[in-house]
Design a protein that fits this description.
Radius of gyration: 33 Å
Shape: flat
Number of domains: 3
Structural class: alpha+beta
Number of strands: 25
Strand order of the largest sheet: 3-4-5-10-7-6
Oligomer: single chain
Distance between the termini: 39 Å
Helix content: 10-25%
Length: about 375
């Protein structure tokens, strides 16, 4: 017991030494375009229904996906092929939903990437080709047309007694697989006011964006509206809005960071921000294990009797309380480096560290936002 106390006194001393000797971490500077979005400059989602052909027997089964047969029949009829009355049951065709995003300022003739996903019982889209598919926006108008060979990262192999699947073979992509046919009108050059929307709203960061813009231009053209919006007034400027934004988006500043701890409980991943602080607290990690085992015992009747064999339950519960739980004292205002170093010195696993951080937050000793995923 005396040896354990000496060890933890040494750990506490190391924490204090590292607290006063660790150099301050310089915060990174970022460009304005990496933390803000420009109001009105956004993409538009597109969706369409199409067919993927040329599959090696891995397409939809017509019995379970009758819409595939109907769509293929309509396609062949538009191409001048009459298949009415024939026994038409292909297994190399799959019905798919095609999705994409029309980027801002996209012009007619430019190409965009598309994603293809099966909606039937197709086993794989590998080796297939998407037939010309119109892509509609929310207003019902066609803005692009997609076609091309589907690239699939996953695969599926099966035999009579076993099968294996790697990745997702029923979805894929077509790089530059759609051509823009219609433009979305947006006259950016006539705007007299432009709003910059922060992707992570924060009053301090928004104020810094306002200050750096006004300092660079030498006049108060930027106004802080709220934690997520900075408005630019262009009435007194002779430059075009596009040229103005090209200058502003390359200005550098240091964004404010919130003290935050993000925990992914499924994978055991812990991400701690550099501003996380801990008040004085004592941490103990127990070592209690409970084992429950069932060993049922059959009971036979006496010879020549008319009794029945019964099974008697036998339950054994073993409680083991190992070595006394380790206790570590964390001093006031310990930084992130000191906290992680101290917990690692205790031999705490990531799973156990998650429980410790949640308990510290409940006790009011962890001064940070705790985000559980």
């Amino acid at each position: 017991m005396t040896r354990a106390l000496n060890v933890f006194r040494l750990i506490a001393a190391c924490l204090l030494i590292s607290l006063f000797s660790a150099p301050l971490t310089a915060q990174a500077t970022v460009k304005v375009k990496d933390i803000v979005d420009i109001e009105g400059v956004r993409g538009n989602d597109l969706v369409g229904y199409g067919l993927v052909i040329g599959l090696d027997g891995t397409g939809d089964s017509i019995r379970n996906s009758p819409y595939t047969e109907e769509a293929l029949s309509n396609l062949l009829e538009r191409l001048g092929v009459n298949i009415q009355g024939s026994n038409f049951k292909p297994n190399n065709v799959a019905a798919v939903i095609v999705t994409s995003s029309l980027p801002p300022f996209a012009r007619a003739g430019s190409r965009i990437d598309i994603n293809v996903s099966s909606i039937g019982d197709a086993k794989s889209l590998a080796g297939g080709t998407l037939i010309m598919t119109p892509l509609n926006a929310a207003d019902g108008e066609v803005y692009a047309v997609g076609q091309g060979n589907v690239l699939v990262s996953g695969f599926k192999a099966e035999g009579e007694g076993a099968s294996i699947t790697e990745g997702v073979p029923t979805s894929g992509t077509i790089p530059n697989g759609a051509r823009v046919e219609r433009e979305i009108s947006f006259d950016f050059g006539t705007m007299s006011r432009i709003r910059l929307a922060l992707r992570a709203p924060d009053f301090t960061t928004a104020e810094r964006v306002e200050r750096v813009i006004n300092e660079k231009f030498g006049s108060a053209i930027a106004t802080l509206l709220d934690a997520g919006t900075v408005e630019l007034s262009l009435k007194s400027l002779t430059q075009s809005p596009a040229r103005l934004i090209s200058r502003i988006e390359n200005y550098e500043l240091t964004p404010a960071q919130k003290a935050r701890v993000v925990i992914d409980q499924r994978s055991g991943t812990i991400v701690l921000g550099n501003n996380v602080k801990v008040s004085s607290v004592a941490i103990a990690q127990g070592n209690l294990s409970i084992t429950i085992s069932e060993t049922p015992v059959p009971s036979q009747p006496n010879p020549f009797s008319r009794g029945e064999t019964i099974v008697l339950p036998r339950t054994t519960i073993d409680v083991r309380d190992g070595e006394p739980g380790n206790i570590a004292i964390i001093e006031q205002n310990v930084s992130l480096t000191d906290l992680v170093g101290g917990l690692n010195a205790l031999g705490v696993s990531p799973r156990e560290m998650i429980d410790i951080l949640k308990t510290m937050k409940t006790a009011g000793a962890l001064h940070a936002e705790l985000v559980l995923q």
